[in-house]
Amino acid sequence: MTEEKEMKKEEKSFATISVKSFVSVVVILVTMIAICGVLSLFVPQGHFLRNADGEIIAGTFVQTEAQGLSFWKIITAPVRVFFVEGSLTIIMICLFLLIMSGVFNLLDKTNGIKAIMNKIVKKFDKKKRLVICITILFFMLFGSLFGLFEELVTLLPFITLFMLSLGFDTMTGLGVCMLAACFGFSAAITNPFSVGIASSFAGISTLSGVWLRIIFFFITYGVVCWFIFSHIRKITKNPEKSYTYEMDKEKRQNLEFSGELTEKDNKVFKVYMVFFIVQLVALVLIASIRAISGFAIPILSVTFLVGGIISGLLVCEEKKKVFAYLGKGALSMLPAVALIALASSVNLVMTESGIIDTLMNTVINFLDGKSVFVAVLFIYLFILVLQIFIGSASAKIFLIMPILLPICQVIGLSPNLLILVYCMADGFSDMILPTNPVLLIGLSMSNISYGKWVKWTWKIQVAMLAVSLLVLFFGVQIGF
Protein backbone atom coordinates (compact mmCIF):
# COMPACT_ATOMS: atom_id res chain seq x y z
CA MET A 1 0.00 0.00 0.00
CA THR A 2 2.84 2.34 0.85
CA GLU A 3 4.59 1.61 -2.44
CA GLU A 4 1.39 2.34 -4.33
CA LYS A 5 1.10 5.74 -2.60
CA GLU A 6 4.70 6.54 -3.44
CA MET A 7 4.13 5.67 -7.10
CA LYS A 8 1.11 7.96 -7.26
CA LYS A 9 3.09 10.72 -5.62
CA GLU A 10 5.90 10.27 -8.15
CA GLU A 11 3.46 10.53 -11.06
CA LYS A 12 1.42 13.48 -9.83
CA SER A 13 2.97 16.93 -9.94
CA PHE A 14 2.78 19.19 -6.90
CA ALA A 15 0.64 21.81 -8.67
CA THR A 16 -1.79 20.71 -11.35
CA ILE A 17 -4.67 22.47 -13.08
CA SER A 18 -7.96 20.64 -13.41
CA VAL A 19 -9.55 20.48 -16.85
CA LYS A 20 -12.77 22.01 -15.51
CA SER A 21 -10.94 24.98 -13.97
CA PHE A 22 -8.91 25.54 -17.13
CA VAL A 23 -11.87 25.38 -19.52
CA SER A 24 -14.07 27.70 -17.44
CA VAL A 25 -11.47 30.48 -17.40
CA VAL A 26 -10.63 29.98 -21.10
CA VAL A 27 -14.31 30.44 -22.01
CA ILE A 28 -14.49 33.68 -20.00
CA LEU A 29 -11.30 35.13 -21.49
CA VAL A 30 -12.09 34.13 -25.09
CA THR A 31 -15.52 35.74 -24.69
CA MET A 32 -13.92 38.96 -23.44
CA ILE A 33 -11.48 39.01 -26.37
CA ALA A 34 -14.39 38.53 -28.78
CA ILE A 35 -16.39 41.35 -27.15
CA CYS A 36 -13.42 43.70 -27.41
CA GLY A 37 -13.05 42.78 -31.07
CA VAL A 38 -16.73 43.51 -31.72
CA LEU A 39 -16.50 46.83 -29.86
CA SER A 40 -13.71 47.90 -32.20
CA LEU A 41 -16.25 47.80 -35.04
CA PHE A 42 -18.58 50.32 -33.40
CA VAL A 43 -16.61 52.45 -30.94
CA PRO A 44 -14.74 55.33 -32.64
CA GLN A 45 -10.98 55.14 -32.47
CA GLY A 46 -9.00 57.88 -30.84
CA HIS A 47 -5.68 58.77 -29.32
CA PHE A 48 -3.93 61.35 -27.20
CA LEU A 49 -0.60 62.84 -28.12
CA ARG A 50 2.17 61.78 -25.76
CA ASN A 51 5.47 63.36 -24.80
CA ALA A 52 8.91 61.75 -24.91
CA ASP A 53 8.25 59.95 -21.62
CA GLY A 54 5.02 58.44 -22.91
CA GLU A 55 2.84 60.74 -20.79
CA ILE A 56 -0.47 61.94 -22.24
CA ILE A 57 -0.67 65.62 -23.24
CA ALA A 58 -3.97 67.02 -21.98
CA GLY A 59 -6.38 68.41 -24.57
CA THR A 60 -4.81 66.60 -27.52
CA PHE A 61 -7.37 63.85 -28.03
CA VAL A 62 -8.11 63.18 -31.69
CA GLN A 63 -11.03 60.96 -32.69
CA THR A 64 -11.46 59.06 -35.93
CA GLU A 65 -14.09 56.68 -37.25
CA ALA A 66 -14.40 53.11 -36.00
CA GLN A 67 -12.43 50.90 -38.35
CA GLY A 68 -12.46 47.62 -36.47
CA LEU A 69 -9.58 45.32 -35.71
CA SER A 70 -8.89 42.68 -38.33
CA PHE A 71 -9.99 39.14 -37.53
CA TRP A 72 -6.48 37.72 -37.83
CA LYS A 73 -5.15 40.20 -35.26
CA ILE A 74 -7.85 39.17 -32.79
CA ILE A 75 -7.31 35.42 -33.13
CA THR A 76 -3.50 35.71 -33.06
CA ALA A 77 -3.45 38.04 -30.04
CA PRO A 78 -2.59 35.23 -27.53
CA VAL A 79 0.58 34.55 -29.53
CA ARG A 80 1.45 38.13 -30.41
CA VAL A 81 1.41 39.23 -26.74
CA PHE A 82 4.82 37.58 -26.42
CA PHE A 83 6.31 39.67 -29.25
CA VAL A 84 4.80 43.16 -28.94
CA GLU A 85 6.25 46.10 -27.02
CA GLY A 86 6.20 45.41 -23.29
CA SER A 87 6.06 41.65 -23.80
CA LEU A 88 9.19 41.09 -21.69
CA THR A 89 7.12 41.49 -18.52
CA ILE A 90 4.66 38.80 -19.60
CA ILE A 91 7.50 36.47 -20.60
CA MET A 92 9.22 36.93 -17.24
CA ILE A 93 5.99 36.26 -15.34
CA CYS A 94 5.47 33.04 -17.29
CA LEU A 95 9.06 31.89 -16.71
CA PHE A 96 8.75 32.79 -13.05
CA LEU A 97 5.60 30.67 -12.76
CA LEU A 98 7.23 27.66 -14.45
CA ILE A 99 10.33 27.90 -12.25
CA MET A 100 8.29 28.31 -9.08
CA SER A 101 6.07 25.34 -9.95
CA GLY A 102 9.10 23.18 -10.71
CA VAL A 103 10.86 24.07 -7.46
CA PHE A 104 7.80 23.43 -5.28
CA ASN A 105 7.28 20.11 -7.02
CA LEU A 106 10.90 19.27 -6.16
CA LEU A 107 10.26 20.37 -2.58
CA ASP A 108 7.25 18.06 -2.38
CA LYS A 109 8.87 15.01 -3.97
CA THR A 110 11.96 15.21 -1.72
CA ASN A 111 9.73 15.33 1.41
CA GLY A 112 10.63 18.95 2.13
CA ILE A 113 6.98 19.91 2.66
CA LYS A 114 6.42 17.01 5.05
CA ALA A 115 9.47 17.92 7.15
CA ILE A 116 8.72 21.67 7.31
CA MET A 117 5.03 21.23 8.05
CA ASN A 118 5.67 18.69 10.79
CA LYS A 119 8.04 21.06 12.59
CA ILE A 120 5.81 24.14 12.29
CA VAL A 121 2.59 22.37 13.26
CA LYS A 122 4.13 21.18 16.54
CA LYS A 123 5.20 24.73 17.37
CA PHE A 124 1.97 26.56 16.53
CA ASP A 125 -0.73 23.93 16.98
CA LYS A 126 -2.17 25.63 20.09
CA LYS A 127 -1.89 29.21 18.74
CA LYS A 128 -3.90 28.90 15.53
CA ARG A 129 -5.88 32.16 15.74
CA LEU A 130 -2.72 34.15 16.48
CA VAL A 131 -0.98 32.47 13.52
CA ILE A 132 -3.83 33.50 11.22
CA CYS A 133 -3.75 37.14 12.38
CA ILE A 134 0.04 37.41 12.07
CA THR A 135 0.12 35.73 8.65
CA ILE A 136 -2.54 38.10 7.26
CA LEU A 137 -0.74 41.14 8.71
CA PHE A 138 2.60 39.96 7.28
CA PHE A 139 1.31 39.68 3.72
CA MET A 140 -0.74 42.87 3.90
CA LEU A 141 2.18 44.93 5.19
CA PHE A 142 4.51 43.72 2.43
CA GLY A 143 1.88 44.74 -0.12
CA SER A 144 1.00 48.06 1.51
CA LEU A 145 4.49 49.29 2.35
CA PHE A 146 6.62 47.82 -0.43
CA GLY A 147 4.16 47.13 -3.26
CA LEU A 148 4.88 43.39 -3.31
CA PHE A 149 2.08 41.23 -4.68
CA GLU A 150 3.16 39.00 -7.57
CA GLU A 151 6.41 38.19 -5.75
CA LEU A 152 4.57 36.91 -2.67
CA VAL A 153 2.78 34.26 -4.74
CA THR A 154 6.01 32.26 -4.42
CA LEU A 155 4.95 31.49 -0.85
CA LEU A 156 1.39 30.43 -1.70
CA PRO A 157 1.95 26.64 -1.92
CA PHE A 158 3.87 26.70 1.36
CA ILE A 159 1.24 28.80 3.17
CA THR A 160 -1.61 26.67 1.80
CA LEU A 161 -0.04 23.49 3.10
CA PHE A 162 0.70 25.23 6.40
CA MET A 163 -3.00 26.05 6.74
CA LEU A 164 -3.93 22.45 5.88
CA SER A 165 -1.53 21.23 8.55
CA LEU A 166 -3.26 23.42 11.14
CA GLY A 167 -6.62 21.85 10.22
CA PHE A 168 -7.93 24.53 7.85
CA ASP A 169 -8.46 24.29 4.07
CA THR A 170 -6.97 25.43 0.77
CA MET A 171 -9.29 28.45 0.64
CA THR A 172 -7.91 29.63 3.98
CA GLY A 173 -4.40 29.42 2.53
CA LEU A 174 -5.40 31.49 -0.49
CA GLY A 175 -7.10 34.00 1.80
CA VAL A 176 -4.26 34.60 4.24
CA CYS A 177 -1.65 34.74 1.46
CA MET A 178 -2.82 35.87 -1.99
CA LEU A 179 -5.98 37.72 -0.92
CA ALA A 180 -4.19 39.43 1.98
CA ALA A 181 -1.23 40.49 -0.20
CA CYS A 182 -3.55 41.97 -2.83
CA PHE A 183 -5.71 43.80 -0.29
CA GLY A 184 -2.58 45.15 1.40
CA PHE A 185 -1.33 46.37 -1.99
CA SER A 186 -4.69 48.14 -2.45
CA ALA A 187 -4.81 49.60 1.07
CA ALA A 188 -1.49 51.23 0.24
CA ILE A 189 0.42 53.26 2.81
CA THR A 190 3.70 53.86 0.95
CA ASN A 191 3.35 51.41 -1.97
CA PRO A 192 5.98 52.72 -4.43
CA PHE A 193 4.08 51.39 -7.48
CA SER A 194 0.89 53.29 -6.71
CA VAL A 195 1.31 55.93 -3.97
CA GLY A 196 4.96 56.58 -4.87
CA ILE A 197 4.51 57.13 -8.61
CA ALA A 198 1.21 59.02 -8.22
CA SER A 199 2.77 61.33 -5.59
CA SER A 200 5.61 62.10 -7.99
CA PHE A 201 3.10 63.08 -10.68
CA ALA A 202 1.27 65.30 -8.19
CA GLY A 203 4.48 66.86 -6.89
CA ILE A 204 3.80 65.92 -3.28
CA SER A 205 5.55 63.76 -0.69
CA THR A 206 4.74 60.06 -0.46
CA LEU A 207 3.88 60.65 3.21
CA SER A 208 1.42 63.42 2.40
CA GLY A 209 -2.01 62.36 3.69
CA VAL A 210 -0.57 59.12 5.07
CA TRP A 211 -2.71 59.26 8.23
CA LEU A 212 -5.95 58.41 6.39
CA ARG A 213 -4.23 55.68 4.38
CA ILE A 214 -3.00 54.11 7.64
CA ILE A 215 -6.52 54.17 9.08
CA PHE A 216 -7.87 52.62 5.88
CA PHE A 217 -5.18 49.92 6.01
CA PHE A 218 -6.24 48.77 9.48
CA ILE A 219 -9.93 48.89 8.53
CA THR A 220 -9.07 46.64 5.57
CA TYR A 221 -7.05 44.37 7.86
CA GLY A 222 -10.10 44.03 10.10
CA VAL A 223 -12.33 43.16 7.14
CA VAL A 224 -9.91 40.47 5.91
CA CYS A 225 -9.62 38.95 9.40
CA TRP A 226 -13.43 38.96 9.74
CA PHE A 227 -13.80 37.23 6.39
CA ILE A 228 -11.21 34.53 7.10
CA PHE A 229 -12.45 33.79 10.63
CA SER A 230 -16.06 33.61 9.41
CA HIS A 231 -14.94 31.01 6.88
CA ILE A 232 -12.98 29.08 9.52
CA ARG A 233 -15.97 28.99 11.88
CA LYS A 234 -18.15 27.60 9.08
CA ILE A 235 -15.81 24.80 8.04
CA THR A 236 -15.01 23.97 11.68
CA LYS A 237 -18.71 23.29 12.36
CA ASN A 238 -19.15 21.42 9.08
CA PRO A 239 -15.92 20.56 7.19
CA GLU A 240 -17.90 19.39 4.15
CA LYS A 241 -18.99 23.00 3.49
CA SER A 242 -15.46 23.76 2.36
CA TYR A 243 -15.23 24.19 -1.41
CA THR A 244 -12.07 22.08 -1.34
CA TYR A 245 -13.13 19.38 1.14
CA GLU A 246 -12.45 16.30 -1.01
CA MET A 247 -9.24 17.68 -2.51
CA ASP A 248 -7.90 18.67 0.92
CA LYS A 249 -8.49 15.19 2.35
CA GLU A 250 -6.11 13.80 -0.26
CA LYS A 251 -3.55 16.54 0.35
CA ARG A 252 -3.51 15.87 4.10
CA GLN A 253 -2.98 12.16 3.49
CA ASN A 254 0.02 12.94 1.30
CA LEU A 255 1.59 14.99 4.10
CA GLU A 256 1.71 11.81 6.24
CA PHE A 257 2.70 13.46 9.51
CA SER A 258 4.33 11.23 12.10
CA GLY A 259 5.30 11.72 15.69
CA GLU A 260 9.03 12.21 15.15
CA LEU A 261 11.22 13.20 12.23
CA THR A 262 13.99 10.90 11.11
CA GLU A 263 17.60 12.04 10.79
CA LYS A 264 17.08 12.39 7.05
CA ASP A 265 13.91 14.47 7.60
CA ASN A 266 15.84 16.81 9.90
CA LYS A 267 18.49 17.31 7.21
CA VAL A 268 15.78 18.04 4.61
CA PHE A 269 14.16 20.51 7.01
CA LYS A 270 17.41 22.42 7.62
CA VAL A 271 18.30 22.59 3.90
CA TYR A 272 14.90 23.89 2.82
CA MET A 273 14.60 26.32 5.72
CA VAL A 274 17.87 27.90 4.55
CA PHE A 275 16.36 28.01 1.06
CA PHE A 276 13.26 29.89 2.29
CA ILE A 277 15.34 32.27 4.42
CA VAL A 278 17.34 33.18 1.32
CA GLN A 279 14.08 33.88 -0.56
CA LEU A 280 12.82 36.03 2.31
CA VAL A 281 16.07 38.01 2.35
CA ALA A 282 15.72 38.50 -1.41
CA LEU A 283 12.18 39.84 -0.92
CA VAL A 284 13.31 42.30 1.75
CA LEU A 285 16.24 43.53 -0.36
CA ILE A 286 13.98 44.00 -3.39
CA ALA A 287 11.51 45.97 -1.27
CA SER A 288 14.23 48.10 0.36
CA ILE A 289 16.52 48.93 -2.59
CA ARG A 290 14.76 51.04 -5.22
CA ALA A 291 17.52 50.40 -7.78
CA ILE A 292 16.61 46.69 -8.00
CA SER A 293 12.87 46.88 -7.25
CA GLY A 294 12.09 46.95 -10.97
CA PHE A 295 13.88 43.63 -11.43
CA ALA A 296 11.94 41.78 -8.73
CA ILE A 297 10.64 38.93 -10.90
CA PRO A 298 13.98 38.18 -12.66
CA ILE A 299 15.86 38.24 -9.34
CA LEU A 300 13.36 35.96 -7.61
CA SER A 301 13.32 33.63 -10.62
CA VAL A 302 17.09 33.20 -10.45
CA THR A 303 17.22 32.80 -6.65
CA PHE A 304 14.38 30.27 -6.74
CA LEU A 305 15.89 28.21 -9.57
CA VAL A 306 19.49 28.21 -8.31
CA GLY A 307 18.47 27.76 -4.67
CA GLY A 308 16.02 25.00 -5.57
CA ILE A 309 18.59 23.06 -7.61
CA ILE A 310 21.26 23.33 -4.90
CA SER A 311 18.79 22.30 -2.17
CA GLY A 312 17.52 19.40 -4.24
CA LEU A 313 21.03 18.11 -4.94
CA LEU A 314 21.86 18.26 -1.23
CA VAL A 315 18.85 16.20 -0.10
CA CYS A 316 18.09 13.92 -3.05
CA GLU A 317 20.02 10.62 -3.22
CA GLU A 318 19.38 10.22 -6.97
CA LYS A 319 20.72 13.48 -8.39
CA LYS A 320 19.15 12.99 -11.84
CA LYS A 321 15.70 13.03 -10.27
CA VAL A 322 16.20 16.64 -9.16
CA PHE A 323 15.92 17.86 -12.75
CA ALA A 324 13.13 15.39 -13.53
CA TYR A 325 11.07 16.78 -10.64
CA LEU A 326 11.77 20.35 -11.76
CA GLY A 327 10.73 19.53 -15.33
CA LYS A 328 7.50 17.78 -14.34
CA GLY A 329 6.53 20.63 -12.06
CA ALA A 330 7.16 23.20 -14.77
CA LEU A 331 5.20 21.22 -17.38
CA SER A 332 2.19 21.03 -15.06
CA MET A 333 1.95 24.84 -15.21
CA LEU A 334 1.93 25.22 -19.00
CA PRO A 335 -1.89 25.58 -19.00
CA ALA A 336 -1.47 28.57 -16.66
CA VAL A 337 0.88 30.17 -19.21
CA ALA A 338 -1.88 29.80 -21.80
CA LEU A 339 -4.32 31.54 -19.43
CA ILE A 340 -1.89 34.41 -18.90
CA ALA A 341 -1.53 34.82 -22.68
CA LEU A 342 -5.32 34.96 -23.07
CA ALA A 343 -5.68 37.45 -20.20
CA SER A 344 -3.00 39.72 -21.71
CA SER A 345 -4.70 39.46 -25.11
CA VAL A 346 -7.73 41.40 -23.82
CA ASN A 347 -5.52 44.42 -23.16
CA LEU A 348 -3.70 43.99 -26.49
CA VAL A 349 -6.93 43.93 -28.51
CA MET A 350 -8.24 47.02 -26.70
CA THR A 351 -4.98 48.90 -27.24
CA GLU A 352 -4.63 48.02 -30.93
CA SER A 353 -8.27 48.90 -31.63
CA GLY A 354 -7.76 52.40 -30.17
CA ILE A 355 -10.67 52.04 -27.77
CA ILE A 356 -8.87 52.72 -24.47
CA ASP A 357 -8.09 56.38 -25.18
CA THR A 358 -11.64 56.93 -26.48
CA LEU A 359 -13.13 55.44 -23.32
CA MET A 360 -10.86 57.54 -21.14
CA ASN A 361 -11.66 60.76 -23.01
CA THR A 362 -15.40 60.13 -22.70
CA VAL A 363 -15.21 59.70 -18.93
CA ILE A 364 -12.96 62.72 -18.49
CA ASN A 365 -15.39 64.92 -20.44
CA PHE A 366 -18.23 63.64 -18.29
CA LEU A 367 -16.41 64.65 -15.09
CA ASP A 368 -15.97 68.24 -16.24
CA GLY A 369 -18.22 70.50 -14.17
CA LYS A 370 -19.52 67.77 -11.84
CA SER A 371 -19.55 68.02 -8.02
CA VAL A 372 -16.68 66.58 -6.01
CA PHE A 373 -18.82 63.72 -4.70
CA VAL A 374 -19.94 62.72 -8.20
CA ALA A 375 -16.39 63.12 -9.52
CA VAL A 376 -14.99 60.80 -6.84
CA LEU A 377 -17.57 58.14 -7.62
CA PHE A 378 -17.02 58.28 -11.38
CA ILE A 379 -13.22 58.38 -11.14
CA TYR A 380 -13.50 55.28 -8.98
CA LEU A 381 -15.73 53.54 -11.53
CA PHE A 382 -13.58 54.69 -14.44
CA ILE A 383 -10.40 53.24 -12.92
CA LEU A 384 -12.35 50.09 -12.03
CA VAL A 385 -13.37 49.62 -15.69
CA LEU A 386 -9.87 50.42 -16.92
CA GLN A 387 -8.55 47.81 -14.48
CA ILE A 388 -10.22 45.09 -16.59
CA PHE A 389 -7.93 45.89 -19.51
CA ILE A 390 -4.79 47.28 -17.83
CA GLY A 391 -3.78 45.31 -14.74
CA SER A 392 -0.52 47.15 -14.03
CA ALA A 393 -0.90 49.80 -11.34
CA SER A 394 2.03 51.89 -12.58
CA ALA A 395 0.93 51.64 -16.23
CA LYS A 396 -2.50 53.10 -15.43
CA ILE A 397 -0.93 55.91 -13.43
CA PHE A 398 1.22 56.98 -16.39
CA LEU A 399 -1.87 56.73 -18.57
CA ILE A 400 -4.42 58.73 -16.60
CA MET A 401 -2.71 60.88 -13.94
CA PRO A 402 -1.47 63.58 -16.37
CA ILE A 403 -5.11 64.19 -17.35
CA LEU A 404 -6.99 63.55 -14.11
CA LEU A 405 -4.74 65.77 -11.97
CA PRO A 406 -5.60 69.03 -13.84
CA ILE A 407 -9.32 68.15 -13.84
CA CYS A 408 -9.26 67.39 -10.10
CA GLN A 409 -7.60 70.74 -9.43
CA VAL A 410 -10.43 72.49 -11.27
CA ILE A 411 -13.23 70.67 -9.42
CA GLY A 412 -11.52 70.95 -6.02
CA LEU A 413 -10.40 67.34 -5.56
CA SER A 414 -7.05 67.18 -3.73
CA PRO A 415 -4.13 65.07 -5.03
CA ASN A 416 -4.18 63.08 -1.77
CA LEU A 417 -7.81 62.06 -2.27
CA LEU A 418 -7.19 61.25 -5.95
CA ILE A 419 -4.34 58.94 -4.94
CA LEU A 420 -6.59 57.25 -2.37
CA VAL A 421 -9.31 56.78 -5.00
CA TYR A 422 -6.78 55.32 -7.38
CA CYS A 423 -5.37 52.79 -4.90
CA MET A 424 -8.83 51.58 -3.90
CA ALA A 425 -10.16 51.21 -7.44
CA ASP A 426 -6.94 49.74 -8.80
CA GLY A 427 -6.33 46.86 -6.43
CA PHE A 428 -9.21 45.06 -4.74
CA SER A 429 -10.80 43.96 -8.01
CA ASP A 430 -7.58 42.12 -8.92
CA MET A 431 -8.92 39.29 -6.79
CA ILE A 432 -12.07 38.82 -8.88
CA LEU A 433 -11.17 39.86 -12.44
CA PRO A 434 -10.26 36.89 -14.68
CA THR A 435 -7.90 39.15 -16.65
CA ASN A 436 -5.49 39.34 -13.70
CA PRO A 437 -2.57 36.90 -14.29
CA VAL A 438 -1.68 36.65 -10.57
CA LEU A 439 -5.20 35.48 -9.72
CA LEU A 440 -5.02 32.89 -12.50
CA ILE A 441 -1.64 31.72 -11.22
CA GLY A 442 -2.89 31.37 -7.65
CA LEU A 443 -6.05 29.52 -8.63
CA SER A 444 -4.13 27.27 -11.01
CA MET A 445 -1.55 26.33 -8.41
CA SER A 446 -4.29 25.60 -5.87
CA ASN A 447 -6.49 23.75 -8.38
CA ILE A 448 -9.45 26.03 -7.63
CA SER A 449 -12.00 26.88 -10.32
CA TYR A 450 -12.73 30.54 -11.03
CA GLY A 451 -16.43 29.94 -10.27
CA LYS A 452 -15.69 28.60 -6.78
CA TRP A 453 -13.39 31.53 -6.10
CA VAL A 454 -16.07 34.07 -7.05
CA LYS A 455 -18.64 32.29 -4.86
CA TRP A 456 -16.21 32.42 -1.96
CA THR A 457 -14.98 36.03 -2.29
CA TRP A 458 -17.98 38.03 -3.52
CA LYS A 459 -18.97 39.00 0.04
CA ILE A 460 -15.60 40.52 0.88
CA GLN A 461 -15.58 42.34 -2.47
CA VAL A 462 -18.96 43.91 -1.66
CA ALA A 463 -17.78 44.73 1.86
CA MET A 464 -14.62 46.45 0.61
CA LEU A 465 -16.56 48.37 -2.03
CA ALA A 466 -18.85 49.75 0.69
CA VAL A 467 -15.97 50.52 3.07
CA SER A 468 -13.93 52.19 0.30
CA LEU A 469 -16.77 54.49 -0.72
CA LEU A 470 -17.51 55.43 2.90
CA VAL A 471 -13.85 56.33 3.49
CA LEU A 472 -13.71 58.31 0.25
CA PHE A 473 -16.83 60.28 1.02
CA PHE A 474 -15.46 60.93 4.53
CA GLY A 475 -12.30 62.27 2.87
CA VAL A 476 -14.34 64.60 0.65
CA GLN A 477 -16.37 65.80 3.62
CA ILE A 478 -13.31 66.80 5.67
CA GLY A 479 -11.46 68.23 2.66
CA PHE A 480 -8.72 65.58 2.76
Helix count from the secondary structure assignment = 23
Uncertain residue segments: 1-11
| Cα separation of the termini | 66 Å
Average pLDDT number: 82
Tally of strands = 2
Strand content: under 5%
Rg on CA atoms, Å: 23 Å
Query: What is the string of SSEs from the N terminus onward?
Result: HHEEHHHHHHHHHHHHHHHHHHHHH
What would you note in describing this structure?
The chain has 480 residues and is mainly α. The chain has 23 helices and 2 strands. It has helices spanning 2-11, 19-42, 71-75, 77-80, 87-109, 112-124, 128-146, 156-165, 170-186, 192-202, 210-237, 245-255, 263-288, 290-293, 296-315, 319-331, 334-353, 355-367, 372-389, 393-411, 415-427, 437-446, 450-477; strands spanning 46-47, 62-63. A two-stranded antiparallel ribbon has the order 1-2. Helix 7 (128-146) packs parallel to helix 9 and helix 21 (415-427) packs antiparallel against helix 23 (450-477).
Summary tags:
480 residues, mainly alpha, two-stranded antiparallel sheet, 2 strands, disordered N terminus, 23 helices
How would you sum up this structure in a few lines?
With 480 residues, the protein is mainly α.
Strand-helix topology:
Blueprint: H1 2-11, H2 19-42, E1 46-47, E2 62-63, H3 71-75, H4 77-80, H5 87-109, H6 112-124, H7 128-146, H8 156-165, H9 170-186, H10 192-202, H11 210-237, H12 245-255, H13 263-288, H14 290-293, H15 296-315, H16 319-331, H17 334-353, H18 355-367, H19 372-389, H20 393-411, H21 415-427, H22 437-446, H23 450-477
Antiparallel strand pairs: 1-2
